[in-house]
Amino acid sequence: MDIERLFDASYVRVLSREVEGQAFFEAFYERFIAASPEVAVKFRHTDMARQRAMLKKAFYHLLAFYASSHADYYLQQVAVSHDRAHLDIAPALYDLWLETLIDTVRTFDEQFDDEVELAWRLVMTPGIVFMSFHYDRGTRCD
Question: What is the mean pLDDT of the chain?
Fold first, then answer.
């Protein structure tokens, strides 16, 4: 199983489709915000177009982290901005984020199967663990 190849191919497929008039990241955030009142509060005053652009960028850093096991400056800064002292994104919200992401991929990728799902989970999980780990550690992302 070539995890990166499966992930990359699926990512291209989900970005190339619209479902019910929505692009992938738009549909993801709509689902994510609807999934929890806590998430809805977190995004209450967010510029969602900017947020979607930031998530697209973050995907490349998450993939690089998966491939290298090295958190670059960008991912370190995201971890700090999401910690308890800043945006206060609790670790449990990352589980919901991943499940919502997988559900959105399932809808957008016509070739979605167990291997594709596993590839997404394996690529995203190291970054999620990194973010969760730094929740109570503030600026200590060394």
Answer: 92
